[in-house]
């Protein structure tokens, strides 16, 4: 069975318009699924909303959304009222801007979707937009209403198709200054920097998401199998506790130099300071390491723009 599109509409670039479908790129369906059951009867439980005052279950037709204006006091928002004031979409993702891939900080990435042409008539226009993005090595920002909410979407070429990643709004991204503002300036000696550089170079690799191991899911699946087969449950070994050691000694051990104080990496005479974040403005810096080419769909392992 071919996958079903979660959204169907149009991708528009000025006078170029093509029908497209959006398909969820990340799914949790392969995870072990658990339900809440009654320990005594083994029956699956049903969730019900209870009015705390009357202690009676509230039927679905009587459930409405409300906004708390004071403690325990709510104004009711009827479904038709919400529908009346929210923006209405025309099923179009309109491309507004093109920009270099590296300008988009991955802090703003939300959910990725595969985009493909909806029909044969849309194939040629779709290919023009995709190849334009690929050859100019740019991404596009498009706007439209997705799933009843206005969204800004990042569009980029990906293999034979396109990836559309919804972006978080600026107010949703916390200021980095909240977390980083009290980090102290620390002087790092030249040898420490050289040891760190050596460790990084010896552990250099490539991004291979197929090698990532979900230990939690594997343990949960094994627990289910053991329960079904009546086997004893084996607890994993506890990890070894690390020792608190001198920073320089820890760097030397990590670099494979052990306790030999004479075996040092080439040290530079000058000293440096670690870079301190510049708060929220740093979170939006176009020079950040997060790039549009490395979205959540493992773009670095594919032929991306």
Automatic annotation (TrEMBL):
What residue stretches are annotated with the Ku domain? Answer: 55-184
Q: Does the keyword DNA-binding apply?
A: yes
Segments for region (Disordered)? 255-305
Query: Which keywords annotate this record?
Result: DNA damage, DNA recombination, DNA repair, DNA-binding
- Pfam families, alphabetically? Ku (PF02735)
Indicate, by first and last residue, each region the UniProt record lists as having compositional bias (Low complexity).
Answer: 276-290
Q: Where is the composition biased (Basic residues)?
A: 266-275
Per the entry, what this protein does is: With LigD forms a non-homologous end joining (NHEJ) DNA repair enzyme, which repairs dsDNA breaks with reduced fidelity. Binds linear dsDNA with 5'- and 3'- overhangs but not closed circular dsDNA nor ssDNA. Recruits and stimulates the ligase activity of LigD.
Q: Which family does it belong to?
A: Belongs to the prokaryotic Ku family.
What HAMAP family does its record include? Answer: Prokaryotic_Ku (MF_01875)
User: What subunit structure does UniProt give?
Assistant: Homodimer. Interacts with LigD.
Protein's recorded name: Non-homologous end joining protein Ku
């Amino acid at each position: 069975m071919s996958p079903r599109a979660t959204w169907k509409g149009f991708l528009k670039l000025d006078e170029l318009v093509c029908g497209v479908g959006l398909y969820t790129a990340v799914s949790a369906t392969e995870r072990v699924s658990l339900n809440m059951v009654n320990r005594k009867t083994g029956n699956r439980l049903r969730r019900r909303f209870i009015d705390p005052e009357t202690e009676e279950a509230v039927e679905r037709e009587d459930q409405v959304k409300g906004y708390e204006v004071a403690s325990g006091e709510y104004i009711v928002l009827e479904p038709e009222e919400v529908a009346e004031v929210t923006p209405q979409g025309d099923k179009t993702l309109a491309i507004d801007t093109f920009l270099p891939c590296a300008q988009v900080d991955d802090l703003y990435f939300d959910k990725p979707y595969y985009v493909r042409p909806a029909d044969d008539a849309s194939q040629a226009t779709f290919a023009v937009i995709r190849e334009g993005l690929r050859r100019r090595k740019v991404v596009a920002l498009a706007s439209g209403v997705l799933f009843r909410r206005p969204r800004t979407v990042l569009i980029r070429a990906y293999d034979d198709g396109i990836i559309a990643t919804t972006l978080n709004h600026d107010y949703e991204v916390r200021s980095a200054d909240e977390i980083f503002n009290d980090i102290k300036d620390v002087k790092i000696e030249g040898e420490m920097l050289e040891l760190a550089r050596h460790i990084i170079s010896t552990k250099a690799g490539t991004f291979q998401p197929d090698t990532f191991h979900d230990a939690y899911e594997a343990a949960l699946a094994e627990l289910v199998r053991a329960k079904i087969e009546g086997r004893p449950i084996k607890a994993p070994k506890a990890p070894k506790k690390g020792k608190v050691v001198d920073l320089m000694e820890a760097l030397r051990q990590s670099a494979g130099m052990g306790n030999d104080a004479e075996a040092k990496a080439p040290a530079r005479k000058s000293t440096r300071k670690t870079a301190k974040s510049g708060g929220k403005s740093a979170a939006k810096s176009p020079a950040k390491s997060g790039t549009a080419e490395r979205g959540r769909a493992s773009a670095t392992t594919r032929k991306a723009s």
